[in-house]
Design a protein that fits this description.
two-stranded antiparallel sheet, 73 residues, alpha+beta
Length: 73
Amino acid sequence: MNQIDFELDRDFVALNDLLRLAGLCGSGGMGKAIVASGEVLVDGAVELRKTAKIRAGQVVRWGDAQIHVRAAG
């Protein structure tokens, strides 16, 4: 599994933008399509809201990638 540590410099990031910022897709639009596919898990549950607010401490998984969102500090 590919583990990515993502440092969050604000209160939250939209799920589709997180996928782009973590380097898993090339655009926010592509991120929205990935989320719509039903293959993205947030804290172990399927998340279908493309712009779901992802906060520090959450874990996002898509395919073999797992993103650990951490607070900047």
